Amino acid sequence: MQEDRLAPIPGCSFGREVKWGEGSPGNLREALHEHGMLLFRGVPGDSSNALADRVRGWFPDMPIETPRTNLPADGGPMTVLGSTRAPDGSFNADYVPASTAGAPLLDPDGTWNDVLEASLHDWVAAKQECTFMEWHTDATFIRWPTSYAALYCRQSGASHTGFSNAVDGLAALPKPLRQLAEAAVCVYRPSIIYGNATLGIPAIGSRTVQLTAMNSEFTTEVNGSLEAPSHPDDPVVCHRLVQAHPHTGARSLRFSLKSLETLIPDPDHPEARMPPTDGKRAAWQIMRAATAGSQAYLHPWQTGDLFIWDERLTMHCRVPYDADNNVREMWRMVFEKDPADLVRNERSPQLDLAP
Ligand SMILES: O=C(O)CCC(=O)C(=O)O
Ligand SMILES: [Fe+2]
Question: In what order do the strands lie in the sheet with 296-300?
Fold first, then answer.
């Protein structure tokens, strides 16, 4: 890969734009491991299969997974997300509205404040989401989270997606938060978001549209509390909050807030969990400090933009937009898990619990 094919993304302190037009840029996976995310502009999207072939050419050792539902009409291996509608007016893509309430995504100095504390209270007491909670890395609530993902813009609907540098975010943490982050194990309970149909635990309200589109039988609930004791048969999944990149060794934050139940501050004592509200508050504080200032970037989508990111280096977030009045259509690709992530998983019962 020639470095002169990579250009800074205006307004963004990390990632690179790939100048891909003239001739093949070669295998870009190493550039992804170095820069965390790559942007391609002006990529044709008439055919989802042709788009997938182009992506395979750029990342030949990153096979694209075929999703089960919500594929584009011509069947390429991607999920349609956004605010497209069926003839009867109902949303027909994998549309999950980003919260517009409470603590915002961005705060210039990243410090903890009353708005965040109030939003944390609303979440714990009534599962009321706030915009800030949109920051995440994907699928942390499953045993083997996604390693790489991509979003392609067919129609922007005046929308953005946020990206944040998870390596610089860790480095920017004030010392006590950094010490906690480096040691902590996150306890995720998937039912907090998706419910658990077998146990009759309801999903959160914002998932209704998505789950309906996926023909799920989950019931939904808007006002539940996260303070009640959890069901003994309801599974949790544990991952280190800070992980080392399996190819470069770069240490970064890899976590999410919505399905997080609490933190284990010392992995040598997994039974000693923080009280859930304290664990969540600490995780929110880490996310707040990590997404402050130049670490975060909101990308204004244009048709033909394609972002591919490494989940181990880059956090991201949905950004609220006016879905009632704008048509947004995004195609999301997920790649098969990086075997280097799996090798590490096999060494411990849960992903990277070894330091
Ligand atoms: O809709 C967006 O902007 C982001 C969606 C997202 O979180 C993802 O594709 O993983
Ligand atoms: Fe995501």
Answer: 296-300, 160-165, 314-318
**Which atom of ligand 1 is the closest one to the Cα of 319?**
3
Taking the CA of residue 98 as reference, the ligand 1 atom at the shortest distance is: 1
Q: How far is CA 113 from CA 103, 116, 178, 199, 255, in A?
A: 9, 6, 19, 37, 21
User: What is the spatial distance between Cα 327 and Cα 189, in angstroms, rounded to a whole number?
Assistant: 33
Q: Which residues sit with their C-beta closer than 6 Å to ligand 1?
A: 81, 138, 149, 151, 161, 316, 318, 330, 332
pTM: 0.94
Distance 344 CA to ligand 1 centre (A): 26
Q: How many CA atoms lie within 13 A of 90 on its CB side?
A: 8
Q: Which ligand minimizes its atom distance to the CA of 153? A: 1
Cα 237 to chain center, whole Å?
16
* Ligand 1 pocket test target in 129, 306, 317, 335 with most atoms within 8 Å of CB: 317
Q: What is the pLDDT of residues 213-270, one digit of tens each?
A: 555 554 555 556 787 788 889 999 888 999 999 999 999 999 999 999 999 999 888 8
How far the first Cα of the chain sits from its last, in Å, is 32
Asked whether 301 and 331 are in contact (CB, 8 A), the reply is: no
- Return the exposure string of 132-150: e unless at least 16 CB atoms fall within 10 Å of the residue's CB, then b: bbbbbbbbbbeeebbbbbb
CATH topology of domain 3-346: Double-stranded beta-helix (3.60.130)
- State the residue for tokens 């302190």: 13
Helix axes 175-183, 276-290, angle to 10 degrees: 120
Q: Cβ distance 49 to 27 under 8 Å?
A: no
DSSP 240-277: ESEEE-TTT--EEE--BSTTEEEEES-TT-TT-PPPHH
- Residue 290: DSSP 8-state: H
Distance 310 CA to ligand 1 centre (A): 14
Bridge-based pairing of strands 203-204 and 220-221 is parallel
